[in-house]
Amino acid sequence: MTGASDLRARNGRANGLVDLYERAGYLRVEPPVLQPADAFFELSGEELAHRLFLTENAAGEELCLRPDLTIPVCLAHIANGGAAPAGYCYLGPVFRDQGGGSGEYLQAGIESLGRVDRAAADAECVALALESAKHYGCAAPTIRMGDVSLFSALIAALNLPPVWQRRLLKDFNRTGTLEADLSTLKSGPSAGLEQAGVLAALQGSDPAAARAFVTDLLSIAGISTVGGRTVAEIAERFLEQASLGATSGLAPETSAVLERYLDIEGDPDEALAALRALAAEAKLDLEATLETFEQRTGFIAAGGVDVRSIRFASAFGRPLDYYTGMVFELHDTGGRVKWPIAAGGRYDQLLTVLGASEPVPAVGFAAWISELEQAGGVA
Amino acid sequence: MSTLPVKTLLLGVPSKGRLMENAHAFFGRAGMSLVQPRGGRDYRGTISELPGVEVAYLSAAEITNNLAQGTIHLGVTGEDLVREMIADADQRVLLIDGLGFGQANVVVAVPQAWIDVRTMHDLDDVATAFHAKHDRRMRVATKYVNLTRTFFARHGIADYRIVESLGATEGAPATGAAELIVDITTSGATLAANGLKVIDDGIMLRSQANLVASLAAYWGDDERAAARALLDRVAAERRARTMREVRTRFKAADAELVAEASGRFGVLAPLGGPTSSGMLTLLCPPESVHGLAIFLREAGAETVMVASPEFVFANENSLYDALVARLNRKG
How far off is chain A from B184, nearest CA to CA, in Å? Predict the structure, then answer.
């Protein structure tokens, strides 16, 4: 049992953390603990949805105990008009059903919404996360970093068929099964025998002809109702598959580029050099993305962070699919703490999905108080 | 969580519908008469032949919950409910035996119009394209929330969300409440009638009614003794159900012939080898009975008699042994 003085010390330290964010210009907010569940289902995916503590109000609307504060802060920002750039910070419990324990976790963090100087905002976010660790006595946590936008840029530059672009992006961002994808890609696509005829018939068709063809197929099969997807969508996918049928798997040089890309690791400067070399050799134009990368590294260094202590990996991602750019995690270097002590990244599309009328650039991180305490040895 | 010692083994039996009828018939075949002293509306009952057992009539879902919580010892319920309702099912309950009724598959079904979707791989691609195009996730209507999450994760599908459905799930795509469904089906006829088809590799679970033991319940000596007696009968019924008794008598019958029959037809000689007069009693799987009869007559038998045994009791009680082994492993 924690004594009263321990409790005071603990709360004091956590409040000191938020003071630090407030001094950096972030406005402290306290979004409601009970949140509409829908946004979390839609945005977090089913992998995280089963962690939600759910309830209902008398009107039958599904509510949940907030599992994080990013979405509640963004929703509040949009509800308040959401036009001007704003930085928010918070300290409070979040609730996740981890199949045991109290399910309640104290979290602090910031969300920086609307800043168009993205590289500087990213750097500030990383610097504040590091300050948070230091505030708890954890001076040199391990910094792991990745960049989701680099992979998207690479995939776009490689000119892959749309089916494969989709697949690789999804797996890179969400399920981390890229190795299986690459080996399937190399061996070439395989359409089911029954579909081979359809695909052959469609090869070289235009979208209108494909739609007419699919409509005919459906009427021959006596299928009158089309649920969920339109005939055009079904036809479009058949066309994609047909064009895929004409190619015989991934060119060896393309898969070599992907594999080399995923192997790139090092501090941000080393990684940048390797990425530039890869882009030059493979004649891929990634310069716009790489320039942002370079600027960000510059801002991080200018913020007093030793850039050589950052472990960047091209293959590094975070298991939330709303990230669109830099992602990072801080870990206890001693390995005493199982989970990240802080983590975050850029999520430029989230506010639009949540209902903002204009795109809002956004970046933020969350820090876990009990992990900070363990890593800092004050638990 | 364990209940207090009650000295009685609590057996959960489905309280309504075909599952109840089949369960009664099953226990009947195993020589156990379920009695409801105050008639069909009574929610407590007994087994005439087993005084140490009390029967609780519950819905299959309640039986599943009670098994997980340890408030009943044994119960009859569907494997679909066990897998769906109990997290870490194998840590908390033991599926003792499939009972041969209540067979149904939990399947992923999509509109028949999705002629481009045959496999889970196709569905994965369609789900991702749908999310990108419509700015929302494809919805899956189901009451099997946990089974669906596990199965979809295994297939790498991320771009979907579950819409919980508590009845008439198969109608969800037609009403626009969801794009596809995960549901239980026996013949697929209801799915077809609603314009749906099962994905080729979309069979998530082949379920049937099971006799299930709770590992969380209190298992004292009395409860174990009652379980042993009950499972002895269940095992005897199972052996009887899966074997035919084959009898014959002829001079040439010897141990070598029995060994060959055992290798070729999977027969057992539960009463030992042929007697000196060539009298032979074998147990044979039903599908091999005719082959065995031909074999025995070619070896010299005049007549081969085949009958269905009512019970085959054996000293070995593998169902009970498995339960005890599991209870002991749990500590």
Answer: 20
